[in-house]
Amino acid sequence: xxxxxxxxxxxxxxxxxxxxxxxxxxxxxxxxxxxxxxxxxxxxxxxxxxxxxxxxxxxxxxxxxxxxxxxxxxxxxxxxxxxxxxxxxxxxxxxxxxxxxxxxxxxxxxxxxxxxxxxxxxxxxxxxxxxxxxxxxxxxxxxxxxxxxxxxxxxxxxxxxxxxxxxxxxxxxxxxxxxxxxxxxxxxxxxxxxxxxxxxxxxxxxxxxxxxxxxxxxxxxxxxxxxxxxxxxxxxxxxxxxxxxxxxxxxxxxxxxxxxxxxxxxxxxxxxxxxxxxxxxxxxxxxxxxxxxxxxxx
Length: 298
Prior knowledge:
The chain is of the alpha/beta class. Helix content is 42%, strand content 19%.
């Protein structure tokens, strides 16, 4: 059946069916796609003949999707939407060198956004739209050209993963909080609130163990979805958190956050730019090369 043209209905029939399924009738479907009601009816009759099953129940002059029609629509409509998205993207890229990139929220705000003027200066015709995403997804079902991923390359199946850099997380708190809660050695952390990032709740036990502290005595504190929320909570005096140093450089330089123990936590995980295996076209190649170059500069 694969690639057999006998099982690919005419696009005109699919378009008529999709519109009729959404509107629940042939008349409004025809108004949308520029056909008469009878022309829509003929297109759907052609599709039903090919499928050898009715898709609508005819009740007088009214029509209504039947069970077979609903099942067909449930599978067909997402496929047509995917075709539309792919066509829009291909057309937009011909008209302008456009990309849509998914990025981790804190990474996008603190690492990507400040560097965008450099990208514009190097590629003034390249238009990049960014959207926040925290979890891997299927490029075949999402309208993105690439994504920023933290973890290991193998966690994003079916994609190419270009290494950017590793991170070092450091314990931080506000200087006012530290003055009120003196920390003389790492074991003192077991007596104060330890804040976490939601997807990295194991960071504190690993840091404590590396510092020679019995991590079994660790008690989880509040968790935050994004690192910058975590940084704000620390700056407000909520406790101590482990945060990648590159994400809080402004706070460290301004002194709103301080490092009580200079013991960074490193892991085998890293930041990657991931993209479909066949997706490295001209615009994405330019963006990829720029990202890798920026990452190598630190």
